[in-house]
Design brief:
- The complex is a heterodimer of chains A (293) and B (317).
- By secondary structure, chain A is mainly alpha-helical.
- Chain A has helices spanning 2-6, 12-26, 28-50, 83-119, 121-136, 139-149, 154-180, 184-191, 196-232, 243-250, 259-286.
- In chain A, helix 4 (83-119) packs antiparallel against helix 9 and helix 10 (243-250) runs antiparallel to helix 11.
- The radius of gyration of chain A is 23 Å and the shape is elongated.
- With 317 residues, chain B is an alpha/beta fold.
- Chain B has two domains: 4-82 and 198-257 and 266-310, Rossmann fold, CATH 3.40.50; 87-167, no CATH class.
- Chain B has ten helices and twelve strands.
- Chain B has an eight-stranded mixed sheet with strand order 6-7-8-3-9-10-12-11, with helices on both faces. A four-stranded antiparallel sheet of chain B has the order 2-1-4-5, with helices on one face.
- The two termini of chain B are 28 Å apart.
- Classes of the chains: A mainly alpha (293), B alpha/beta (317).
- The interface between A and B is medium-sized, with 23 and 33 residues.
Chain lengths: 293, 317
Amino acid sequence: MQADKLVDVGSRAASRKGRRLRAFLRNPTFLAGLSILSFFVAIALLAGWLFPTDPQDMVAQPLLWPGDDPAYLLGSDSLGRDVLAQLVYGTRASLMVGVASAAIGLAIGMVVGSAAGYFGGWIDTLLMRLVELFQTTPTFLLVIVIVAIREPSLSTIALAIGLASWPTVARLVRAQFRSLRESDFVMAARSLGYSSTRIIVQEILPNALPPVIVAASVMIANAILTEAGLSFLNMRDPNVISWGGMIGDGRDQLRSAWFLTALPGAAIAAAVLSLNLVGDGLNEILNPRSDDA
Amino acid sequence: MSLLAVEGLTVAFPGNIAVREASFAIAPGETLALVGESGCGKSVTAFSVMRLLAPNARVTAGRILFDGIDLLAMTPAAMREIRGKQISLIQQEPMTSLNPVLSIGAQIAEVIRRHERVTRKAARARVVELLELVRIPDAARRIDDYPHNLSGGMRQRVMIAMAVACGPKLLIADEPTTALDVTTQSQVLDLLDDLRRRLGMAVLLITHDLGVVAQWADRICVMYAGRIVEQAAIGAFFTRPMHPYSRGLLGARVDVGADEHYSLNRLSEIPGSVGSAAGEAGCAFAPRCPLVVPGCRLAVPPLIAQGERAVACPVVI
């Protein structure tokens, strides 16, 4: 702290950013999660370059074990499709569904939560009853119903998971808004003639974000799990490879070729773990009680 | 004509009337001090002028005329145009009155861009001028600082810069220096007074510090239990306070200039404590008043004007 005070004013902004960055880099949980996650993101981005052919193509002899043929490192499934190629393309589907559904859930949840928390009164009562309505429905059941109504495509699945996951965000944002709307700087903003929209978006929302960012990483992880569950139950886009679908396909060979279920299962576990680690790390870093800045 | 005229303002909370028939006026460029103990209704009065009362408070009677227009009859949108542009507010807690996630420059620029059509660049230039105006050293560099980089006094200067950014005609300062230490307090009040002169603003200064009033105000309104009990020019008030409550307040000060050391004398006090004024028939101060007569408990004494001053006590007139 003493050393910080001696820093020249001109470099203040830079040192502040540096301190934040160092806080991120000092946190081993966050770093571990981030490196696994970046690995998956890189794979998803490079999928087309790593495996230019369609992963659904029957390219090899069926049921090759990992290591049997150096051309197909992780073996092949009962249809002779390359398992490694499928895993790589499956990363794409999982991350896309995870990010898209979290974005949908966050958008709805933040709008509902901030309106309910800021305005209070009957708006709050109405919106919170709606939230409770969604929360009393089992999430997975709701997703299945929505996907069953429309055809199972990646976008439908993302939309369904997003529609099922917003209530958590709404409650979180509402709680933040309820305490922040009483703060002095909100009163100051009112006294300067700012409209409610401006106060919500510009004054309160940035202050309410840290717990939402933490929740977002867990939401992506949950969405990946839900998507895997749906695909396993065959509620999936048949033209898209996904980890859950691979597990479902490999079920029949569980005793003879267990790697067909174990490998995508491990991928799901690793991806979900990485997101949870990132969430935990962010929670520690963004927690105001640990903020020394 | 007065800039602000509050006429018969009555503000009620559920089960409690915070302000009763308060009337006062502020002339352009004048500093009026609103004085009273905690809970006497001075902040509620100020927030009524801004129309920023808590949702459960209601103005049940009265008018608030600003430049001849009744603020209480304005639409919310029109009122937002007044706030920050014509009437500004400085709150007592500078530590929490700034948004912690935005730089001070961004916050001041936002006020300017809210009320005036200026480019980002022009706004930023104005912000530097404003920071210099409120005497923040090295303004051009400080502009990108965040509130947590600044001390309490500096933050209050930033709040003042935001309040005067659009050249308001009236500045309401709600105990602007209560949270600051004494040296910072006088710097901030000197600054406010200087800005008032330069920008030609009127100031409604809410305080419970009579020392502050004596040094920086032109006129004083003393509130007790929701009512204004005395109005006077500063000189007249401090040489000859009239209302028994005002006399009690001035008597309860430490006299540093006396021959004997002040700690040797007993500090005089007003007996009793401020009770709720709700439901009492007569003068709210009667239970504590040394000059009380039976008539005081029968009817509320009206504020009687005597030239420049007005007192709500028939006994002393």
